[in-house]
Amino acid sequence: MAPKITIVGGGSTHWGPRLLTDFANTPSLHDADVALVDIDESALPRMLTIAKHIVTSCDVAMHVTATTELPRGLEGADFVVTALSVGGFESMAHDIEVPARYGIFQPVGDSVGPGGISRSLRSIGVVLDIAREVERTAPDALLLNVSNPLTALCRAVTSQTAVRTVGLCNELVGMLFWLSLVFDADMRAIDPVVAGVNHFPLVTSLRIGEQDGFALLREALADPEALAGALWMEPPAQSHWQRIDPSRDWRKADVLYNNRLKLAVLERFGVMPGSADTHVAEFVPWFVQAASDQGRRWGVHHYGIDGHRADKVEDDEWAAELEAGAEVPRWPSGELVAPLIDSIVTGTERHLPVNLPNTGQVMGLPDGVIVECMGVVDAAGVRPRDTASPGALTEHLRRVVTSQELTVQAALDEDRGQVLHAMLADPIAGTLPWEHVTAMTDELLNRTSAWLPPGLRP
Question: CB neighbours (10 Å) of residue 458?
Answer without folding.
Answer: 9
